Amino acid sequence: MKKKLILESGEVFHGTGFGADTDTVGEVVFNTGMTGYQELISDPSYSGQLVCMTYPLIGNYGINRDDYESMEPAMKGLIVKELCDFPSNFRNQMTVDELFKKKNLSGIQGIDTRKLTRIIRNKGVVRGKIVNENVDEQEVVNFLNNFEVPSNQVESVSTKTAYAAPGRGFKVVLVDFGSKLGIIRELSQRDCDITVVSQDTTADEILLMNPDGVMLSNGPGNPEDVKGAKEMINGIIGKVPVFGICLGHQLIGLACGAKTFKLKFGHRGGNHPVLDIARNRVEITSQNHGYAIDSESLKSTDLEETHIALNDRTNEGFRHKVHPCFSVQYHPEASPGPEDTNYHFEEFIDLMYQFRNGTM
User: Fold this and answer.
1) Which one is catalytic: 272, 323, 331, 344?
2) How far apart are alpha carbons 63 and 138 in whole angstroms?
3) What is the mean pLDDT of residues 317-339?
4) 333 catalytic, yes or no?
5) CA angle at residue 156 from 148 to 187, to 5 degrees?
6) Which CDD domains does this UniProt record tie to the protein (predicted)?
């Protein structure tokens, strides 16, 4: 199954297809993780994207039932140097190729992923399309130069109906902007009584549930496109402890008056060093975002910067100076370090305890 990847700038990569024999189009981004491809494939934050893996061999430990981050993949496709056909792992249940066939996803292998990554680093995120070998290349380039990435990505991956993950501890409302199951796992391990609600849930609806705390999840796309989020956040800050992750972090920033901007090629992978300013400690983090908070814009808000990315000095975390609210740009529910940043969930539990007992 001969395939090719065509970029909007005209570059063409010839390779072999895997998964479903269908064309697919999206933003082409790269991920620097050596492992974690199953979590990546099922991460809703990759909605609308073709993901290029910089590590050359993908699929060598297969796919298992436990490592999914959502029930249905939201990504558009996968680009790899070499796909493993015969995984070796005691948990393996199927290959990446078999999963992609079942989920009607398509990918391409056998291309120079290092060259593709250099193009993205130099030019920034580009649009691309995986097509059959005989498709006219100029027609695809013309199509890509007029292709608009959908702006309703959060709406497409958020739950449509609220659901519960019961526990006996603090009652937490998790606003699902494209939440990974890892967030629910971490809260459940701390015996939280979790209610997951849709991204368009209002502040009044959330407060009516009488939660001890509210979590704002990760998710895809431009934070400016998430309608109603700023109003909802402004309606709960100060009334209940709030913890944001990734897109949730950016939405808190926007609600408090900060600004966001699109990164040239984003942060995606499980090996990003971040400085915890207060502890003067470097942590290895898992990241997946294409937008960031403008650190300079924080100075005119009630938000105090707490974490900085060491690769490019962009903002990675802040806390509210007045109210019980904090957030991070990276993913503390992931385990790249392996658990360098897991303590944020304990901070959230402590914050809810102090707020409930009036000891803040």
Assistant:
1) 331
2) 37
3) 91
4) yes
5) 130
6) GATase1_CPSase (cd01744)
